[in-house]
Task: structure prediction
Amino acid sequence: MLRQAFHEFRIATRGRGLYDFTAQAASWLAAERCRNGLLTLLARHTSASLLLQENADPDVQRDLEAFFTRLVPDGDRLFIHTAEGDDDMPAHIRTALTTVNLSIPVSGGALMLGTWQGIYLWEHRQTPHARRVAAHYLGE
Amino acid sequence: MLRQAFHEFRIATRGRGLYDFTAQAASWLAAERCRNGLLTLLARHTSASLLLQENADPDVQRDLEAFFTRLVPDGDRLFIHTAEGDDDMPAHIRTALTTVNLSIPVSGGALMLGTWQGIYLWEHRQTPHARRVAAHYLGE
Amino acid sequence: MLRQAFHEFRIATRGRGLYDFTAQAASWLAAERCRNGLLTLLARHTSASLLLQENADPDVQRDLEAFFTRLVPDGDRLFIHTAEGDDDMPAHIRTALTTVNLSIPVSGGALMLGTWQGIYLWEHRQTPHARRVAAHYLGE
Result:
């Protein structure tokens, strides 16, 4: 019997960086008794994104951050939208270069992620923010 | 009662830039009496993408364009696929760097977007094009 | 009558490059008698991604590769996560810059892709790998 469930994850960030919320997503699926279906996530922001990335070696996250900081430098004089500071426009661009959407099949109650994949919110602003991720489940 | 609906949005572009079609998407959902479910969009092109981005300050769009123009310069001599002009291969790369897919939960008849998120088609070619975005709805 | 189907595509890569698996996806939909619905794909890796791109001129793939190789150079001294070689961290970054997720509407048994769109797995590592792509179908 197919059915839907809706939720919103709240993630309090401490500034720029990756925040793993795989466990929160798995807990919600368990509480809703989701067995086989599809989980869709949407970050409701234009300066934070979603990412499936390596959850083993923390150096990967350090290097991801280093690369994006070099690619989209804070305070670049190319930008005119600087009302909220040097990291404002870079945060929008980093969000456009990654994604705000993920859709993950669920089988036997488990997220069908790869062995090394964790679900991250990527905060692109330097200051702490309260982030919201809409969740939709459709399945059995 | 779960059901599906299909549609294709037509967007006539006037060349490179962002085209907001949030209102068109909302109108279609209303016409189909979609209440709670999931809207999936797919740009059926390799030189135009979809983007959820800031709909308040137009400077954000100007800066997004400025950044991508610098990152993927038209006429870059790295490229050999130039049959359709200087902007041909950059349009493919800009599409690969962003996305052609969006999935947005719908609750109480409303798209669960963030306050500042609008749905845009990003035309990456310099000349006007007729773009098509496939839409799929599943829900109540 | 709405129903679900699950699958996992196996793609054996010969190292970095694009691997078209559109025909495999279409074959699976036909075998499952999928008519109208939504196909969702997820690459279960952090160093390979999914891409809808031009399937006509092979120069497009050559230029995509050339651009990403210049943008994210193998052996860049910025990176400290180099345990698996010079292409290890660049593979993670190329994956983050593109996507591991695709959702494609299906109508009348056919994928609603554009004329020039093929479904590719993009292998970002230099050596051959066995890649897995989770597939979920929901529809009639």
